[in-house]
Design brief:
single chain, alpha+beta, Alpha-Beta Plaits, 4 helices, elongated, binds iron/sulfur cluster
Length: about 120
């Protein structure tokens, strides 16, 4: 299973340690944290990783590099599932339809302008 890791960007604030639902984040020295890959389940029951959500530093908690594509596909599947099963799916279908039409109209207008000028 995919796991997260704490990188050298960590400033040691400790927020992630208290938020982790599986207790996977351990203190190994003052202000030095480590994620136990056996206990990290990548917050699969949440919409995002809780350690990342509370971390004040960009990329201090990241998916382990060899898990990157697993992470990418897991997120893709999660979003797809949510879009399919939410009542807002119809709204987004309409939104994308309208967006597509607008882009096509603008492209057509630009083409006409460049031909006539
Ligand atoms: S991804 Fe979730 S389970 Fe894994 S270390 Fe972060 S908070 Fe804990
Ligand atoms: S929340 Fe981010 S900066 Fe704070 S200890 Fe965890 S990884 Fe480090």
């Amino acid at each position: 299973m995919m796991s997260y890791a704490i990188t050298e960007r960590c400033i040691g604030c400790g927020r992630c340690e208290t938020e982790c639902p599986t207790g996977a984040i351990e203190t190994i020295a003052p202000k030095l944290y480590h994620i136990d890959t056996q206990r990290c389940h990548n917050c699969s029951s949440y919409s995002n990783a809780q350690c990342v959500a509370v971390c004040p530093v960009e990329e201090a908690c990241t998916p382990l590099l060899h898990d990157y594509w697993d992470f990418w596909f897991a997120r893709y599947r999660r979003l797809k599932h949510r879009l399919k099963h939410r009542s807002s799916a119809a709204y987004w279908d309409r939104w994308f339809g309208l967006f597509g039409k607008t882009v096509t109209r603008i492209a057509r207008e630009r083409t006409t302008e460049s031909i006539t000028s």
